[in-house]
Amino acid sequence: EKGGYDYFMLKEIAEQPKAVADTLLGRIDGSGSLTLDEVRIPPGVLREIDKVVIVACGTAFHAGMIAKYAIEHWTRLPCEVELASEFRYRDPILDAQTLVIAISQSGETMDTLMALRHAREQGSKVLAICNTNGSTIPRESDAVLYTHAGPEVAVASTKAFLTQLVACYLVALYLGQVRGTKWGDEIRAVIRDLSSIAGAVDQVLGTMEPVRELARTLASKKTVLFLGRHVGYPVALEGALKLKELAYMHAEGFAAGELKHGPIALIEEDLPVVVVVPSPRGRSVLHDKIVSNIQEIRARGARTIVIAEEGDEAVVPYADHLVRIPATPTLLQPLVATVPLQVFACELATARGNEVDQPRNLAKSVTVE
Ligand code: F6R
């Protein structure tokens, strides 16, 4: 049932190109417009929405953080992302013009369920992004967009995360289309980019052996830091979360711009720091800033593990280890940049003798608050 892999997690990492392709399947018609049949919130209601609030936990929360960039960029609607466990306890401002998006692989996470119940009590519409047919969260929502990742068995979420991202991009584009902020050529261009992303994920998977080798050499380390900016920041958080839960190592993700406000004090000789580098083509200002960050931490002794787009030569002099990912549009980069971090955490966990599919103290779905 593990399909020849030692662990479900390895199998599920390998299934990501298919999961991504399946989640896109049938949702875009020949003319490049989106057809989201499972979204049963009438377009008229979506046109009246004045705010989007995303609630989720753990890895799904990281997908939500990335969705915020896409939603605000493509729809110009303000979008907040909040940990579901914090949401209802702070008396959030919600009304009938708020669209709440609840993201959950299992559809049973109690914190997320309680957050969406609270939102519905305030009259907000709730759209669930979920991987489990007929689970509680979609049943209690106004609409659902299913991710088609297939069953995810390993406790650590991998393929569900990538498909959550795809679903979030689809929702963002759909909102843009319905509300008239993004349509026609622009949507078609993003759709085209999305359609080639499964191939890009596959390409990354084919180049992971050096990442595994590197991970094995770091098995006795105490701490690994992760840095990113823009959509690379949630990717850094996700890389750190994977390492904590699987390798039981101290790992932290930072927004690279925050380094100078404190975290740079942590840098010491031979500390592994993974840096997710934004494309030099898109927001080149961010790219250049992150290159200076890499320079700064390396000058202080960090061992830099740099994840950068093919053709990005500026990072080469400062990378102790360079992991190449295919060039993608900025907003879509998390779909390829996350993969090496999953492989890294999985291999480190194995090297430390940990149970990869069933990490200590964790359960696949957390049905208590
Ligand atoms: C991390 C992980 C957890 C879940 C979180 C939410 O690898 O698996 O952080 O992402 O517990 O679970 P769902 O998506 O089922 O609501």
Automatic annotation (TrEMBL):
Its EC number is 2.6.1.16. GO terms for molecular function: carbohydrate derivative binding; glutamine-fructose-6-phosphate transaminase (isomerizing) activity. The keyword RNA-binding does not apply. One of its GO terms (biological process) is UDP-N-acetylglucosamine metabolic process. It catalyses: D-fructose 6-phosphate + L-glutamine = D-glucosamine 6-phosphate + L-glutamate. Keywords: Aminotransferase, Cytoplasm, Glutamine amidotransferase, Repeat, Transferase. GO terms for cellular component: cytosol. Residues 41-181, 214-359 form the SIS domain. The active site is at K364. It is found in: Cytoplasm. Homodimer. Catalyzes the first step in hexosamine metabolism, converting fructose-6P into glucosamine-6P using glutamine as a nitrogen source. This is Glutamine--fructose-6-phosphate aminotransferase [isomerizing]. It comes from Streptomyces luteogriseus. The gene is glmS.
